[in-house]
Structures are given as C-alpha cells and as structure tokens.
C-alpha cells in the first residue's frame, strides 16, 4: 500500500509540475546526495522539457582544494603520523597523487567512518600523532567538533585535525555573483539545513531575489521541492520554502551549531574548481590551535595554486556549466578507477553519478 501511495504521489507531483511550468527555468541542486538521487531515479527525464536541472558544487570532497590534499599526503608520509579520513577522500587526486598512493609508498593512512574512531586510535596509541582529515559541509562539522572536545576532555595530546570543512551559503553567494551560469532557483541541501536552519538561505533569497527550497533525497522530496521552487518562479516570488520539514527546521539544530561555533570560525577558502570564496571555509579557532594539524606540523599555507590534473574540467562541472557527459574525458580517459578529478571518484560527485547511472 505504501509503494502504491508513493507512486500515486509521484504521478501527481509530475502532473502538477507539467501544469506549473509555462516558460524555461533552470534550477540548481547543491547537494551531491540529491544529484545521485536525481540520476539514480531518472528524474531529469521525467520533468517538463522547459525545466532544466543544474548540478552545483554540492560535493564537499570534490571542492577540497588540491593544496589541502597535498598537505594530507605530506603529513601521512611523516614518521610517527597517521592520517585518518573518510573513504571518499582516499582516492581524490592531489598534484602528486592521492592518500592511497601515499599509503602504498609507506604512509600511514587509515580509512574511518567517524572522527571519534580517530580519537580512540589516539587514546590507544599515545606515541602516535593521529591527524583526522576533516572534510564536509556543515553536516559533518559538528562531529569533528565533538571529536576535538572529547579528545581534550580525555587529555589526548596526540590528536589533531586538518580542517577542510566548507560552508554552503558563501558558495551560493559566489555563484550568484557570477555572470555565467546563474540559476533561476536553488534546491537547498536538506541535511545541511537540518543543522544550520534556514536563516542564511532566507538572507540570500532576499538579496538576490531568487527562490530557494529546502529539499530531501527521496523522489517525492525532490519533486515536491522542485515544484515549490517552480511555483515561486512562476509567481515572481523569492523566499525560502521547506519541503523537508520532517528533518530540517527553521532554527536547525542549536546543539550542533554551538559545537561548531565553539571550535571553528570562518575563513576565506579556495574551493577546487571555483576559486577563492570569502568566508567559504572553517578553520580551527585560536583557543584550539593545539589541535590544529596545520599549526602543529607547521604546514605550508594553502594558496590555491596547486595544479589540477591536465585536461580536467571539474571546475565547469562543479559550477553547473557543463554536464559530465559533455566532458570529452568522461568515461574514456576519466573513470572511477582512473579519475582525473574529484567529481569522478567521490561518492557525491556528479561525474560519478553520471558514470554509474547515465552512461547508456
């Protein structure tokens, strides 16, 4: 009965969309999970032809700068240092290889599902410097902050964090300031908004007079979010609508936000494929500098000048200017086993989604 009900709801939403769209619109989703859901469900092919979806920079692994990847690789090769991170980070190419390549060369690289695992590793091995390579949007930053708070409470002086966390609203602001590829509306990331709430998105919607809809990851979530965005566009309205209220609330998660604010502050950050985004990243606060791996190991500054792989068009894909299948390297010289750029190897990358679901 539930499946039949969901099918009926999908048909109704598609019918409503077909009646709602009267002119061409371009809507960008900025969550890699949404990109993969859209591709796996074939939603783009079901939408009215006048409605175009754009895949934005919604993969935090993909936008992690080459400089930061190089820094993590360099740390992993230091004697007595173990670099831990999520699986998606293992094969993201830097300018001189990835973390798995470093492991093959003798580096101590460990895949983990949670930063708390890295804290436990530090506690069990007091002679080992454990560095957690922390990546993600505001969704995963609270877990990193919790790990740092726990390590300090337990007195683990051998635990530190290489922070690659990035923030979504500054990236949307950057995109809206560009002359090329500016979308008409946005599907805001549901899991990020579950942590941060809607305030920043409301500010951007008002400033740029562009509608935004907080959206989930199931087919009905996505279609409902797209419909709510289109109805605003057709009515000439701009504001934040929430199609994911079962998880994302207006105020977000106050406890998670307090943890982030305790440990991190904003900084200008180079996003891979986009460039320098003002306040686009998080850095460890000075009060926690003893857990900042960049400070502890006196790493060189990340200036965004490290080279991307030759021919890689990830920047255009991440900005929504190019569909993955439009890249001449897609599924030929660039595959998940031999990626030129991060969007082909990350579990949230648009190129990986198209390779898996849209090659035929």
Can you offer a commentary on this structure?
The chain is an alpha/beta fold. The chain has 17 helices and 11 strands. The strands form 3 sheets. Strands 2-1-7-8-9 form a 5-stranded parallel β-sheet. Strands 4-3-5-6 form a 4-stranded parallel β-sheet, with helices on both faces. Helix 1 packs parallel to helix 12 (219-235) and helix 9 (168-176) packs parallel to helix 11 (199-208).
Short structural summary:
This protein is α/β, with parallel strands linked by helices.
What percentage of the residues does DSSP assign to strands (E)?
15-25%
The main pleated sheet reads as:
5 strands, parallel
The total of helices stands at 17
As residue ranges, the low-confidence spans are 1-5
Radius of gyration from CA coordinates: 21 Å
The portion of residues assigned to helices is 40-55%
Distance between the termini: 33 Å
Order of adjacent strands in the largest pleated sheet: 2-1-7-8-9
Give the overall average pLDDT: 92
List the secondary-structure elements in sequence, H or E. Answer: HEHHEHHEHEHEHEHEHHEHEHEEHHHH
List keywords for this structure.
single chain; 360 residues; alpha/beta; 5-stranded parallel sheet; 4-stranded parallel sheet; 11 strands; globular; disordered N terminus
